[in-house]
TrEMBL record:
This is Large ribosomal subunit protein bL25. Pfam families: Ribosomal_L25p, Ribosomal_TL5_C. GO terms for cellular component: cytosolic large ribosomal subunit. Keywords: Ribonucleoprotein, Ribosomal protein, RNA-binding, rRNA-binding. It comes from the Bacteria. CDD domains: Ribosomal_L25_TL5_CTC (cd00495). Belongs to the bacterial ribosomal protein bL25 family. CTC subfamily. It comes from Malaciobacter pacificus.
Amino acid sequence: MLEGIVRDSMTKQATKTLRRDGYLIANIYGKGLENISAAFKRNEFIKFMRTKETLAFDVKVGDNTLKVVVQEYQKCPLTSDLLHVDLMVAQPGVRASYKVPVYTTGTPKGLKNKGLLMINHKRVPVKCTYENLPQNFTLEVSQLDTGDNILIRNIEFPEGVDCYLDPRVPVVGVIKAK
């Protein structure tokens, strides 16, 4: 479980001080819940995110233990350091928007024909309850030749899970190298 602290002061100077001390600024929110401003040790947060096995994970902030899902990161454009993270509370029975990661398996046969594998969407936005939330979408790409794509409409979504992207949007494809 990831542990953090509750931020008391929201001033720019307090935020700079926390970042200088190695903390990552976070905002935790949920439908019908009061927002929590928190901070996590940056290195602990990154290690935890690399080893987690599920999309939703537990965090302890102050006296509260919450099950959260990462909604968005903000990185420094110059150094690529993690600056801020938005965490949404995964509430049972509440329909919400989540971003589910996409993984590929196999080697496309288009790579032998001087093609490049392009992953257009690393995370697919879906709307569902927490109970129906898939952990990831695994796509088999070994049959893709140059110019072939896997579209949103080709992905089988579990019951109760809706994707609000256009069905014609490509997720993974093989393009011709120049």
